[in-house]
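hey so u asked for the seq, here:
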Amino acid sequence: MTAFQKSNKGMLTPAQLADEFWAGFLNDRYEIQIGKTKILHFARRVSPAFADHLARTIRNAE
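ran it, structure tokens below
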């Protein structure tokens, strides 16, 4: 495993991104939540303030 692979742990591969995109596209979805954005989208619907806090925490952790 290279240093680049270690630093990008948890990121989607291009193949995973393409698979999720095409699945949504073929189902006529106009907004496609891919990867970890599904969690953030759900959190924003339940509690917008918590979702903002979660997004700030994730961004600062990187």
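The first helix runs from residue 3 to 7. The two ends are 20 Å apart (CA to CA).
lmk if thats what u needed
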